[in-house]
Structures are given as structure tokens and as C-alpha cells.
Amino acid sequence: MKHKKSARKYAASGKLKQAIQARHKHQKLKKQIERRKGSRKSDGKFQSSDQRPTHGDEEEEEEEESTMHKGKNAKNAVEFDGSSDEGGLGGGDDVSDESEASDDEDGSFASVDDLEDEDDGATHLVQLSKLAEKDPEFYKYLQENDKELLEFNLDEKMDGISDDDMEVGIPSGDEDEDEGTPTLTLEILRGWQKAILEHRSLRALRKLLVAFRAASYTNDEEANVAWIINNSTVFDKVVTTALKYTPLVLDHHIPYRKLQNGRYKPPLQSPKQQTLTRLVSTFFMSILRLLSQITDPQLLVTCLVESANLVPYIVGNRRVVKAYLKTCLGLWSSPNIDTKDEMETEDQDDSGSDKVRISAFLCIRKVALGSDESLLEMVLKGTYTTFLRNCKSTSVHSLPAINLMKNTGADIYSINLATSYQHAFGYIRQLAVTLRNTLKAKPASSKESEKSGQGKSKKSSGEPYKQVYNWQFVHAVDFWSQLLSRNCESDSESELRPLIYPLVQVTLGVVKLVPTVRYYPLHLHLISSLLDLSRHTHTYIPLPPYLLAILTSLVSITKPKPSTLKPLDLEVIIRVPTSYLKTRVLLDNIIDEVIYLLSEWGAGVQNSIAFPELIVPVLVSLKRCIKITKQSGHRGKGSGSGGDERPTKAIKTLIERLEEGREWVQERRKHVGFAPNDRSQVDKWQNAVKVGETPVGKYAAVLKKTRERNRKLLEKARRGEEEYLRQ
Q1: Which residue in 381, 365, 374, 293 sits closest to 328, CA to CA?
Q2: β-strand 264-265 against 257-258: which pairing, if any?
Q3: How many helices (H) and strands (E) does the chain have?
Q4: Measured in whole angstroms, how far is the alpha carbon of residue 90 from the centre of its chain?
Q5: DSSP E strand boundaries for 376-418
Q6: How far apart are CA 239 and CA 299, in angstroms?
Q7: CB-based contact 116:309 (threshold 8 Å)
Q8: How far is CA 720 from the centre of its chain?
Q9: What is the per-residue burial (b if ≥16 Cβ within 10 Å, else e) of 523-547?
Q10: What does the CA dihedral 232, 236, 237, 242 come to, rounded to 10 degrees?
Q11: Which tens digit of pLDDT belongs to each residue from 101-150?
Q12: Cα-only R_g, the chain
């Protein structure tokens, strides 16, 4: 029989002989591996592939079909369930399970080796089938010379690998018995790295993740691990290698689908996907244990950032997702994780202390970006409840972390406005219900409070208003104000815009609840939140009456007491201490804050064509305050008998700037040629006005700079005082 020219040329080149020799070498290696598995079987540690139950001809046909269509979605794929995991660190079944079996790495990871063997066999079958189609004569030639090569059986799964480097340092069953638990070295780790980079080897990945599990249980002497890690360099190398290399291997074997705006869909379901998902779930449990133990900020950031790349592979296992989300929320809300050394420097800002919190936020956001809407709802609920739980008290140390949670939480709620609307509506309604219950509650008498023995309790202390007059309520209002400001500023038809009115009504109701000097700082916090909401959403909110009421009340105090107390930091207090009541320090602080907020409000409406009419009642009230100030008889610091008083001077300056703004608008609108009912022309005129160039806008900018400078000086003094106290 004559052979095709290409077949004869292939045989003459010596490549055929090399292929036959490689096949014989493969058979020899296969026999060695079978002998090793037989020895492991006799020791009772490993289960050979011959002992695995067979499932009949139907499963063999399905397995062959899945290997022939590698990379496509299997028709008869079984939906993954996290509870089907039989070994490992729980496989997503129990977050707090610390009693893992000694054969975790063999139960959860053993099937990964078979996946790699199936890949090799499937590739071999595909190549043979293509050879029969492209060159039938050469196929017949192989039938005559090497029938074993063509009679390759996919069911005969080999457990070895042709890459000798990957087997370096991997102990066999006999070595484990004779020498005990082996010690992991950098040489062994480099062998796994080489196999992963060159071959994307699943078996090398399994060995690496087993070593990572051993690293996560380093501090647990009773844990049964496969490796001993007694070197900090090896520990860091194992952790970083496992976190950085695992996404490479998974993306090669079961890539997930990337959508627009950072969204994603999990990998297509297949037998390989199910096995590798269980592998990743077990890996995540080790990551969670490691995150709960390490304190190094840099290592925490590395674990969080790299674990976010693996989130698409575990979204199907809800127990693992919940445990991961709980851990990330805890780190996101933890104040000052890595600021021990940074507090010693004066000029260094707080951005360095936010590395861990920002990394945790990115992990939370990665979970929320999944295609499953239930994941987003889980994240939204956990984010808001965690935020409220960690803002019960506010100080100069915790305020930066709370502000970061507000900003990042608003970003998470901006992912899907339709879903966020449902949650925001429910939580704002809770604020309204709390306010309603407070208004309905009757203060208990002092006798009842004494009889109950719970005078400090909110419900029985005769002060039901404290249910809303607390830091949680203030921060909640500010959070929703930031969210609405961010999403309604540029989109006039935003889905969250209907929530502006109920939030404003609830906030103003709280401001009017207890109009006393002691709670003026709380009122200013709430008004400041509404001021930002009004400016960004272009919604008019009648705030001047509430600010002018505070101002009138303060200037009416006759002969305030002089005091040497330090100025109050209004950013971290909502209730005035008793020692500050009716003191000049308190009056100066709150009056300055009121003047600043009035200037901010004036700058926000300076671009309105109706500005001259809007400020008429404001000017009347401010002039009345000047008369009251002169009658009260209290003077500012450093002023003599004929000197001007500080409140009067500040109010006069504000009146002058408002009048300048009124004249500025009147001069510009003299030349307009449209009527007030022409809304499109009015909007065009107002949009053309640059607030920074207006008289009130310039005045507000100067006050803001002064405010920031005073804040930095106060922060510097605080840090110097802390350093002095340490010494």
C-alpha cells in the first residue's frame, strides 16, 4: 500500500519515531504512578482511581462529550450547590467551622488532579480525530505501527504529570509516614510557580493552595496541615503567590464573563466549573481565617485586593459570600487600622490610614457588581447597617472613618438606583417613624423615673427626644443627603429624586423638636446636610428661618459669661456641655457657624434671577439682630467701651455682601428681554452665572478658607497635646 507523500515525509523526518518513543515513555510513567497509588492505597491514606465508583455508559458518554466540546457550556451540567462540598474548610457550608478533617486537602482538592488528566486526554482525542479527517492515509499508517496510540482510553486517568519540576518537593505517602510533616521551602515553591506559569497546571495550584491553608493555620498548633512553615519569608511568599497566581489559572480554565461598567457573570456551569468552584470556596475560607489573624496593613491590603479578583468564582456559594462580605464590612468599618506610626507626623494627612478600608470597600463593591440582584441587596443592607452600628459615637479620631464610610457607601448605593430606591425608601421611612413615635411619646415624670431605677434609659428618663437626638440619626440624614446629592445633581429625572421631599420634611421636623441652646450644634449639623442637598439638587429649601432663629436666640443673651475654656469643635459635638452654656466662647462659635451657613445659602441662590426678592426677609431679620445685640450689652474680646462687638461686626459684613449681591443681580437683569414665565430663558440666564464671581460667592469662599485654616490649627494643637500627654 502506498502512503501519502506527507506521511512518508513525516516518517522520514524522525518525528514519528519521537512520537512513538514519547508514547512508550508515557506508558512507563503511567505504570510508575499506578504503583505509587497502590502503595498509598495499602497505607489507607489515598484512594486510587480504580476504587472510585463508576456510573455506567451514560456518564462516560457525557464525559466524552464535555471533553470534545471544551470551553462550551455542557448541556447536562448540574447546578452547583455549596452544600455538596464534602471536605475542605467547609466549602461554604459553615463559616465558623474550625474543626476541619485531616484530609481536607485530599478531599476537597483531589478531584482537581483528575481534571488536568481529563484535559490531557481530551486534547489527545481531539488531535487524533482531526488527524483522521485531514490525513486518513497517515492515520492508517499509525494503525499499523502504533495501535496503542490510537486506542487511547479516556477513562484510564493518569495521576502524573510530565513536568518534573512540579513534582520537586512533593512528599509521597511513604515519606509522610517516615519523616512526618514536611517543611516547605522556597525551592518547592518555585517549582509550583514554574508549573503554573508555563502550563497553568491545576495540580500545582492544588499543592499551592494546600500550602496556603497551612499558612493560614500557622498559629494553630492543633491544626492538621500538610506543610510546616517556619520561615517568615516563605510565609509571605506562599501567601502572595497563592493570591496572585490563582486568578491566572482559573481564568485559563474557567474564565468568567466581563460586562460593561465593571459588572460580570460567573463562569458557565460544567463539571470542571463545579470542582474548581469548590476548590476556590475552600481557598476563600483559608483567606478569611488569615484576614482574622494578620495585623500587617500591607499584607491585609494584598489579601483584600487579590481576593477581589476571585469573587466571580464564589458568587454561587452564598455562605462563603456572606462570610467574605461580613469580614470585608468589618475591615471597612474598623477605625485607624494602620495609623499607629502615622499619628506621630504632623503634616501627614489621613489618606495613608485609609488603605485597608478602601481595599475592603473595593471587595464589597466587587460583590455588588455581580449579575445577581440578590447579591446587591445583601451588600446594600449590610453596608447601611454596618455604617449605623459604627457611628453611635463620634470623636476627632473616628470622624474620618465615618466620613469615608459615607462616601464609599453612597458609591455602592449608586450602582443600581432602582434597587437602591427600595432600600432608601424603607430606611428614610424608619427615620420618619422614629420621629413620629418621639412626638407621640409623653415625657415621664421625675417620680416615675426614680421608681423605675433607670434614670439613664432613653425611654424612661423623661427625654424621649433622645431617640432622634443622637449621632446615628444625624449621620443617617447626612448619608442620605450625600446619596441624593450625588445622583440628582446632573440627572433631573433620577429615580432617587422623589426621596428629597420626605427626607427634608423629616430633617426639619427634628430641627423643630427641641429648640434649645444645648442642641444648637445638632441643628447646625442637620441644616448643613440640607444645605448641601439644596445646592447639588437645585432644590429650594427654606433654611434661613431656622438659622435666623438660632442667631436671634444667641444675640438675645444678656451679658454672656467670660470664660477661658477652649473653643468648641462643633464637628464632633451635638450637645453643648453644661460648662459652656451662656459663655462667650459658645456664642462666638455658634454665631460664626450660623454666619457661615447663611453665606453658603446666599451663594447657592446668588445665581437666581429672583435673588433680590429672596433675601428681603433675611436682611430684615439680620438688621433686627443688630438692634438686639446693641441692647444686650455684651462685647467682643479686645473691644473697649466704644469698640464694636464681634457678633455685630460679623452680621454687618454679611448684610453688606447680601446687598452687594442684590445690586449685582438687579444690574444684570435690567438688560433681559424675557418675562419671568419664560422658564427656558430663565434657566439659561441662571446657568450662565458663575457663583464664584458673585459678591456673595466670593464672601463665602473667604469664610470657607478661614474655616479650613482654623480647623487645621485645631488639629495641629490636638496632635501636639497628644504628643505632650504621651511624654
Answers
A1: 365
A2: antiparallel
A3: 28, 2
A4: 24
A5: none
A6: 9
A7: no
A8: 33
A9: bbbbbbbbbbbbbbbebebebbebb
A10: 140
A11: 333 444 455 455 555 554 544 555 555 566 666 667 666 766 665 555 55
A12: 36
Which grid cell sits at 598? Answer: 447663611
Helix (H) or strand (E) holding 258: strand 257-258
Q: 655: exposed, middle or buried (C-beta count within 10 Å: 0-12, 13-18, 19+)?
A: middle
Quick one: cell of 577?
456641655
**What digits encode the pLDDT tens for the residues 468-496?**
999 999 999 999 999 999 999 887 788 99
Average pLDDT, the chain: 77
Residues 347/350/351/352 CA torsion (nearest 10 deg): 80
Q: Which three three-digit cell numbers place residue 190?
A: 518555585
Q: Which amino acid is at 388?
A: L
- The Cα 611–Cα 539 span in angstroms is 15
Cell readout for 670 is 435690567
**382 is written with which cell numbers?**
449590610
**What phi and psi values does residue 433 have, to the nearest 5 degrees?**
-65, -40
Residue type, 633: G
DSSP assigned state of 257 = E
CA distance 253 to 272: 8
* Backbone φ and ψ of 252, nearest 5°: -75, -40
Closest CA to 423 of 474, 380, 389: 380
> Per the structure block, which three cell numbers stand in for 215?
499558612
* Residue 719 neighbours by CB distance under 10 Å: 15
Residue pair 303/287 in contact (Cβ under 8 Å)? The answer is yes
